[in-house]
């Protein structure tokens, strides 16, 4: 089984963390996000992943120079220009020579959904009803930020509505970012320009009665914002990725004996000073948290420096190499200032 994993986006909602790094290469509970995605696919029989690349593709090549990730073969497909979701799928599948049933996964979603069950469901729907594509669904409380899917009693999709207005969704089942596609779907995607699978390809398949879906309950996080990035990291700690009450502390991190670290991720080479407090946070590699400083529910980027007795809380996000003055108090702050970011 082969899978196309979409990793070409700019990750603008995760800035400043993604100003230099593709979001799928950001560390989540001690490992790049892409490794969690690929490892999950490998557990369901996927033995080759085609990475659909756009933004900073060399970051992936440097990380996996032997074109292997989590024991799975990688194929790099780099777009010359943004092609949107369906265009990226067609381009990547063509670059890898895919001509049989395959998976598509959004590379910024972490889950424990049963991909094998989705494949089996699609195989039955294809054989019995001619389904050309099957979408994995997951129920959420507020579906307004996602693609909402309604189905009949058999699983045939009746409607696919992208980001309905709050309170107007006909279902709580949303597109989980995992699809099974027959190769015939590729022929329905124009070969040039931007094409969106959620707004163009899927609605066309609904009109033909060829799109099906399977809803599953399970752990699922769309890691597209700082809030959900932190959520994914902490929930993975809770699911067993951590090392105890402290969370996950890299072996090369230096933590003062008087510091207290709780349910947090400390990256390689970071330093936590005397009497510092780090709680429910992610501290990237080589960052420094000064003596008596407090980090709570926040993200500290690589090589950032938080001065002595400073307080950083309320989902503050500090980018790489940011410096916070000693004694400063930051609540829900984003540094560097978004006004300084490149367009």
Secondary structure class reads alpha/beta
Question: Which range does the strand content fall in?
Answer: 25-35%
Annotated CATH architecture of the largest domain: Alpha-Beta Complex
Radius of gyration: 21 Å
In CATH, the homologous superfamily of the largest domain goes by the name Spore Coat Polysaccharide Biosynthesis Protein SpsA, Chain A
Overview of this structure, please?
The structure is a single chain. By secondary structure, the chain is of the alpha/beta class. It has two domains: 2-222, Spore Coat Polysaccharide Biosynthesis Protein SpsA, Chain A (Alpha-Beta Complex), CATH 3.90.550; 242-340, Hexapeptide repeat proteins (UDP N-Acetylglucosamine Acyltransferase, domain 1), CATH 2.160.10. 21% of the residues lie in helices and 31% in strands. It is built from six helices and 30 strands. The protein has helices at residues 33-42, 58-63, 84-96, 115-129, 197-208, 226-241; strands at 2-6, 27-28, 31-32, 48-53, 68-69, 72-78, 102-106, 109-111, 133-139, 147-151, 157-162, 173-181, 211-215, 220-222, 247-249, 254-255, 260-262, 264-266, 271-272, 277-279, 282-283, 288-289, 294-296, 299-300, 305-306, 311-313, 317-318, 323-324, 329-331, 334-335. An eight-stranded mixed beta sheet has the order 5-6-4-1-7-12-9-13, with helices on both faces. The protein is elongated. The two termini are 39 Å apart. The mean pLDDT is 93.
Summarize the structure.
The chain has 343 residues and is of the alpha/beta class. 21% of the residues lie in helices and 31% in strands.
């Amino acid at each position: 089984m082969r899978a196309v994993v979409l990793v070409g986006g700019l990750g603008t909602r995760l800035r400043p963390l993604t100003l230099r790094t593709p979001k799928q290469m950001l560390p989540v509970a001690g490992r790049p996000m892409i490794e969690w995605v690929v490892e999950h696919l490998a557990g369901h029989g996927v033995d080759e992943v085609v990475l659909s690349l756009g933004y900073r593709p060399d970051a992936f090549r440097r990380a996996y120079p032997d074109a292997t990730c989590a024991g799975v073969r990688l194929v790099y497909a780099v777009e010359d220009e943004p092609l949107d979701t369906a265009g990226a799928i067609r381009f990547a599948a063509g670059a890898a020579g895919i001509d049989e049933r395959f998976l598509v996964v959004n590379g910024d979603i972490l889950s424990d959904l049963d991909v094998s069950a989705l494949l089996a469901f699609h195989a039955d729907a294809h054989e019995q009803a001619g389904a050309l594509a099957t979408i994995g669904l997951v129920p959420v409380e507020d579906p307004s930020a996602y693609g909402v899917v309604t189905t009949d009693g058999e699983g045939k999709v009746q409607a696919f509505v992208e980001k309905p207005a709050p309170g107007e969704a006909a279902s709580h089942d949303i597109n989980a970012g995992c699809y099974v596609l027959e190769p015939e779907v590729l022929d329905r995607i124009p070969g040039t320009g931007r094409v969106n699978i959620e707004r163009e390809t899927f609605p066309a398949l609904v009109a033909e009665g060829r799109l099906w879906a399977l809803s599953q309950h399970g752990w699922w996080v769309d890691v597209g914002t700082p809030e959900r990035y932190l959520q994914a990291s902490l929930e993975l700690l809770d699911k067993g990725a951590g090392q105890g009450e402290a969370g996950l502390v890299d072996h090369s991190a230096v933590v003062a004996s008087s510091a207290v670290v709780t349910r947090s991720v400390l990256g390689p080479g970071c330093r936590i000073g005397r009497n510092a407090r780090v709680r429910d946070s992610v501290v990237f590699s080589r960052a420094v948290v000064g003596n008596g400083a407090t980090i709570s529910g926040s993200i500290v980027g690589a090589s950032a420096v938080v001065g002595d007795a400073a307080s950083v809380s309320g989902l503050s996000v500090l980018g790489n190499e940011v410096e916070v003055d000693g004694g400063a108090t930051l609540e829900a702050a984003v540094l560097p200032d978004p006004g300084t970011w490149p367009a």
